[in-house]
Amino acid sequence: MNKRIFVEKKQNFDVHSKALSKALSSLVNLKSIKQYTIYDVFNVPESLFEKAVRTVFSDPVTDLVSEEMPRGEKILAVEYVPGQYDQRADSAQQCLGLLTQQEHDIKVRSGILYVFEGCSDSDFNIAKNYLINQVESQEKDLSVLEIPESAQPLPVETIEGFILWNETEIEDFYQRFGFALALDDLVHIQNYFKEKNRNPTITELKVLDTYWSDHCRHTTFETALTDIAFKGEFSATLERIFANYLSIRKSLQRESKPITLMDLAVVAAKHFHKEGKLEDLVISEEINACTLLVDVETKNGKEPWYLLFKNETHNHPTEIEPFGGASTCIGGAIRDPLSGRAYVYQALRVTGSADPREKIEDTLPGKLPQRKITTEAAHGYSSYGNQIGLATSGIYEIYHPGYKAKRMEVGMVVGAVPKDWVRRETPTKGDVVVLLGGATGRDGVGGASGSSKSHKSDSTKELSAEVQKGNAPVERKIQRFFRNKEVIQKIKKCNDFGAGGVCVAVGELADSLEINLDLVPVKYQGLNGTELAISESQERMADRTDFRPKFLRGIRYMEALMRWLNLWQKLWPWVEITPKFDSHFKNIFKNWEKVLRIGDFPQEHFWERSMPKWDLSLPPLVGKIP
């Protein structure tokens, strides 16, 4: 049977309604507002439903439950847009699984119901616009109780005629496609495929857009700086500092390299390392988090440990979807030292915002109110940190008009792990990659390229899929999983799944490989090859290991796999790498249809650009051409 229930907090526990009423009272005139949680439950046996109402969907001490829709002067129901991760519904569904202890087809969807009293039509519309962020949510139709149909994945499209387009046609396509890369980059790609005498797939263009985004390749920081001059009160001081920088570059024999913001940022570290003053710095192929080698006092005396730290900025995601942007900011920062097999102990948060007390009518066109951004970002950050069990030892909030046009959201973390627990080795033929963690959905598709675009007033409406909802409980499982010495000593190299998704996280683990996207776990059916290749899949690790299940059979295989996975309830799928060192292809398949096959042209033919900002190292996706 299918059921819908409304859950409200008893008066003494209803802090959400009271806080919301206080927040809205400065924006609109209303007598009261009451908040309810909506649960739509499908395919649930009646006996299980009665038990679940008391144990999963409500707490008898604090909650009241009704199957009748609450009454009020005005009612607003809100739900997530299709494709957004619904943590409340997912958690409820997992709890139902624990109750049944068996496979079932029960589905859960959740929403929020707001009941207004003493509110005019005009004020109701203002409140409605405040409560519904179109990036993540929409008004819910309470007359319908059904599971939305899952769309069937469409075949990956080949862009017919791409190599024949003239300048006007290629520019028109560029505008319609919404690229993060520049128009001349697309022309460069067109020339490549002209040489190859074939049209690209949409996946190939999306992957290139991801790899060449500012997020993944730091093109802004790698852009060559020329005609540098200093003016103003501090010009003499700046000229002296810059002259010292040029002197250090010369001592490092870096004069032939362009002057960039990245070079300015790292030249001091390179200098100190050359001078022998950074002996504790650990240098390896893994660069997800800065790693230092330190001595730690333990009960067994001094032991060598790796100390890892990382900061993450999520300015754009938090700007358009505050809760999800801030939560995945701290989540992304955690994943980097975690991929270095470290346990993350502490965090720091720094934010920049305009005055959150400003009137809602003073909000810039196309932006969310400063109050909504500030308060929901704080909730998102604390929610994620609390669920994963991370202590945030410092929070610094800066309020200045300069942050009105663009928010600042920074999360920083520190982690550590015993040195002898960690292997950092070059992968070899026969290794496999195992995916551990959360499933893939449409939320997070285009996260790298989206955060690298120049945005306009309607970006909040267009970029809904690009901000992913974090899944802190899954990342917490990985944190604990990696506390198992036997587990992490099997890992030769590890990548977290960031904004680039499968194509980046797995693609960086080897110079040549094949990836079968049919093995990628999904949140729901209907994802096509492009979405599976580039979706963020936030809480997941790609671990390259020499643990080879294909050489084990039957009981021996299951025992070994279960032991290695520490008796997890779910066996995460293996994505096996098939090295082809003779061809240096990187091929990605969906239903055994090849959706990406870039890499057989020489490096200088495609990847080395005459433009200074593209004078970068070869993207790992393509492999090294001899």
Please give a structural write-up.
There is one protein chain. By secondary structure, this protein is α+β, with helices and mostly antiparallel strands. 34% of the residues lie in helices and 21% in strands. It has helices spanning 15-25, 46-55, 87-100, 121-131, 167-177, 183-196, 202-211, 214-217, 219-222, 235-251, 261-274, 315-320, 322-339, 370-388, 447-450, 459-462, 472-481, 485-488, 501-505, 529-534, 554-564, 603-606; strands spanning 3-9, 32-42, 63-66, 74-80, 107-117, 137-139, 290-298, 301-313, 343-353, 391-399, 408-418, 432-437, 491-496, 513-516, 540-545, 574-575, 586-590, 593-598. The strands form 4 sheets. It has a 6-stranded antiparallel β-sheet with strand order 3-1-2-5-4-6, with helices on one face. Residues 448-464, 549-558, 566-585 and 600-626 have low confidence and may be disordered.
Annotation keywords:
626 residues; alpha+beta; six-stranded antiparallel beta sheet; five-stranded mixed beta sheet; 22 helices; 18 strands; disordered C terminus
Determine the fraction of residues in helical runs and give it as a percent range.
25-40%
Mean pLDDT: 80
Major beta sheet summary: 6 strands, antiparallel
Low-confidence segments: 448-464, 549-558, 566-585, 600-626
Distance between the termini: 62 Å
Strand order of the largest sheet: 3-1-2-5-4-6
Count every beta strand, where a strand is a DSSP E run of 2 or more residues. Answer: 18
Overall, the morphology is: globular
**Structural category:** alpha+beta
Count of DSSP H/I helices: 22
Rg over C-alpha atoms, rounded to the nearest angstrom: 26 Å
| Percentage of residues in DSSP E strands | 15-25%
